[in-house]
Design goal:
The chain has about 300 residues and is α/β, with parallel strands linked by helices. Helix content is about 20%, strand content about 30%. Strands 1, 2, 3, 4, 5, 6, 7 and 13 form an 8-stranded mixed β-sheet that branches. The protein is globular. It binds flavin-adenine dinucleotide. Flavin-adenine dinucleotide binds near residues 90, 107, 160, 264 and 267. Flavin-adenine dinucleotide (FAD) binds near residues 114 and 267.
């Protein structure tokens, strides 16, 4: 890929990057640090800032992408042989640094069933990837938006949502009451979550292969505040149940609940994308959402 245009009006651009180092943060979570001088142009808005990661398939040393990465990149990527084209997955920018330019991604490991989890388990310095990452603020890839007048925050999520929860907690104003219900696979996955907010973090360790404990935990948890704002992410079925409970049983206005299925049990992200492309199934989890395929350019 060539150098980026000097002044881009597109909110997301493609970057080549390589693994700089990895660190096992806990039994289920590995941090992969990506680096490349071009990553200096990435502009993360923090919180739950999403991006697309492209991974090589076994036997490839870099992800195969279309030759032209203009506004029609998504159609061109889909037109490539599905067995050859780079694996595309959605992740959260956990952190960025400028000197040297680096981008952190925290992967929740779930074995070798998924290509992204399998790749992250084995990632080594020098492994090549591509990222479709934001290059300006207002890029449309942040869902957590505290409404004016919200006097308390509810966060729920599993280990895939921990990077986003960490980013949201780090960004919240001093003293705002927050209740976070967080689900992990192992007691040592309960990572520190620094914040200036007045946060009450409750952890739930999920027994192996058990369904999410979060819908039941939420049902027995009082809400803070008179006008709370809720942000929910994690396994899609569990997220939907929590959202329904908040809107139907707790009478939260729909616009006070932001919810995102980060993955769906028994379904790959490729299958979710294919379903999202079918108009009748537009309610699928948000794998296909921003960065909008048409709104990107080649870096
Ligand atoms: C906006 C957004 C932000 C995200 N941010 C992060 C992030 O920062 N860190 C992170 O780890 N994930 C994150 N995810 C979730 C991640 O994209 C999915 O877990 C993805 O499916 C992983 O790809 P894979 O190739 O490993 O598995 P896939 O090939 O997509 O799926 C293979 C199988 O594994 C199952 N599966 C997928 N994920 C899990 C899981 N976590 N636990 C158990 N089974 C699973 C699927 O149901 C399927 O049966 C995010 C998702 C979205 C939409």
């Amino acid at each position: 890929m060539s150098a980026a245009p000097a002044a881009s009006r597109t909110p997301y651009e493609f970057f080549d990057a390589a693994v700089v180092r990895t660190r096992r943060l806990s039994p289920s979570i590995v941090r992969v640090v990506l680096g490349d001088p071009s990553l200096a142009r990435v502009v993360s808005e923090g919180r739950d800032q999403r991006f697309k990661l492209f991974l090589p398939r076994p036997g490839q040393n870099a992800p195969v992408l279309p030759e032209s990465l203009g506004a029609d990149w998504y159609a061109r990527w889909r037109a490539l042989d599905p067995g050859v084209r780079g694996v595309m997955r959605t992740y959260t920018i956990r952190d960025t640094r400028s000197d040297p330019p680096e981008l952190d991604v925290d992967f929740a490991l779930h074995g070798d069933l998924g290509p992204a989890s399998a790749w992250a388990r084995r990632a080594r310095p020098g492994d090549r990837v591509a990222v479709l990452a934001p290059v300006r603020r207002g890029n449309g890839g942040v869902d957590f938006r505290l409404p004016p007048g919200a006097d308390a925050v509810l966060l729920t999520g599993d280990e895939t949502a921990l990077p986003a929860v960490a980013g949201i907690l780090a960004a919240l104003p001093e003293g705002i009451p927050v209740r976070a219900l967080l689900e992990v696979a192992h007691p040592d996955d309960r990572l520190p979550l620094p914040t200036k907010a007045d946060a009450d973090v409750q952890w739930f360790v999920r027994p192996r292969a058990a369904p999410s404990p979060l819908p039941a935990a939420l049902a027995s948890t009082p809400l803070h505040g008179r006008t709370p704002y809720a942000w929910l992410a994690g396994e899609a079925t569990a997220v939907r149940a929590q959202r329904r409970h908040l809107v139907r049983d707790r009478a939260l206005p729909r616009q006070a609940v932001t919810f995102t299925g980060y993955w769906r049990r028994g379904t790959t992200e490729d299958q979710l994308l294919a379903r999202a492309a079918r108009p009748a199934e537009r309610t699928e989890p948000e794998a296909a959402r921003s960065p909008a395929p048409a709104a990107t350019a080649k870096a």
